[in-house]
Amino acid sequence: MEDKTLFGYDLSGINNINEELVVELMGKVLSEDKAICKCQLCIEDIFALSLNKLKPLYVQSTFKETTFKDYDLTKILDREKITETIQEAIKRVSRHPHH
Ligand SMILES: [Zn+2]
Q1: Which end of the chain, C or N, has fewer beta carbons within 10 A?
Q2: Does residue 44 form part of some domain?
Q3: Alpha carbon of residue 21 to chain centroid
Q4: DSSP H or E stretch at residue 44
Q5: Is residue 29 part of a domain?
Q6: pLDDT of residue 42
């Protein structure tokens, strides 16, 4: 992983929590559909495409617990919307795979 330090502070603990959710929900969607190609290239394409379509949500890992409480989670972590986004990405990658 690239170096993410600034003024001696390690910034690698600041992550897009949508990434975790996309990984989780992608696993669910992909395991339910046997027809989708699951090679590394297609999985990476679906992952990147989904994340590009979603608004990122960066959170400091140090404050992750408290930040979660402050947000209206049902609005931000809309699992249905993320699942739809993943399904759209899957359709696009299946139509035009990079192989
Ligand atoms: Zn593939």
Answers
A1: N
A2: yes
A3: 5
A4: helix 40-53
A5: yes
A6: 97
Distance 97 CA to ligand 1 centre (A): 6
Question: What distance in angstroms lies between residue 43's CA and the mean position of ligand 1's atoms?
Answer: 7
Report yes or no on 49 lying in a domain.
yes
Q: How far is the CA of 31 from the centre of ligand 1 (A)?
A: 15
Q: Cβ atoms within 10 A of the Cβ of 19, count? A: 16
Q: Residue 70 is part of which domain span?
A: 12-95
Q: What is the reported pLDDT for 70?
A: 58
Mean pLDDT per block of 10 residues along the chain (99 residues) reads 84 87 95 93 97 89 63 65 96 95
Q: Give residue 86 CA to ligand 1 midpoint distance, Å.
A: 16
What's the predicted TM-score (pTM) here?
0.80
In sequence order, which residues have a C-beta less than 8 Å from that of residue 94 and are 6 or more positions away? 36, 37, 42
Per-residue confidence (pLDDT) for residue 41, from 0 to 100: 97
